[in-house]
Write a structure and sequence with these properties.
Strand content: under 5%
Distance between the termini: 25 Å
Radius of gyration: 19 Å
Structural class: mainly alpha
Number of strands: 0
Shape: elongated
Mean pLDDT: 85
Low-confidence stretches: 1-6
Number of helices: 6
Length: 175
């Protein structure tokens, strides 16, 4: 599905190289790197908030089977915890990044590189839980009808992400 180098979530060398290339583009030190990094984590925080709200809206599932309800509540709870963890991580990153001088943003990235992937991992887990809960929300036969569509679209999104990520890392390493 993904090339070996592209899906090693905590290998920061490719990400650092990509950010270094962006920093090199910023000829007059206009804060391009700072703006892009800040925007990225602001968007992740907003999307995680939407995931949290969606999971909160589907807390009451419509299925009558107790075993089904336990699994549903467990997945919903995990999704809430991970998406809220993403929000907290994004708040930490954006608030501390706001205190860094623009000339030191690359140093910030290098220092925090291992932790910068945590919000993305948390949001992916939250999205997985959201897909599952929204599919299971209706219960009965409707959930089984929706399940293949939900699964196919989720897998397509993940493959699309891995494909683009591997190309971005490859382009960064070529420069």
């Amino acid at each position: 599905m993904c090339k070996k180098n592209s899906c090693e979530w905590f290998d920061s060398s490719g990400r650092i190289k990509a950010w270094e290339n962006i920093d090199k583009e910023d000829i007059n030190n206009q804060g391009l790197l700072y703006d892009r990094l800040m925007k990225q984590y602001e968007i992740l925080g907003i999307v995680a908030s939407l995931i949290t709200a969606t999971l909160g809206m589907v807390l009451d599932n419509k299925n009558v089977y107790n075993g089904y309800k336990f699994g549903y509540n467990l997945i919903n709870g995990l999704g809430l915890v991970f998406s809220m963890s993403c929000i907290v991580s994004c708040l930490i990153i954006t608030s501390l990044l706001g205190a860094v001088q623009k000339k030191n943003v690359l140093d910030f990235i290098k220092t925090a590189s291992w932790f910068l992937s945590v919000p993305l991992i948390c949001i992916m887990i939250g999205l997985t839980c959201m897909y599952t809960c929204v599919t299971m929300y209706f219960g009965g036969i409707l959930a089984w009808i929706l399940f293949p569509f939900s699964l196919i679209l989720y897998i397509f999104g993940f493959v699309f992400y891995c494909y683009l990520r591997s190309n971005v890392i490859r382009w960064a390493m070529e420069e």
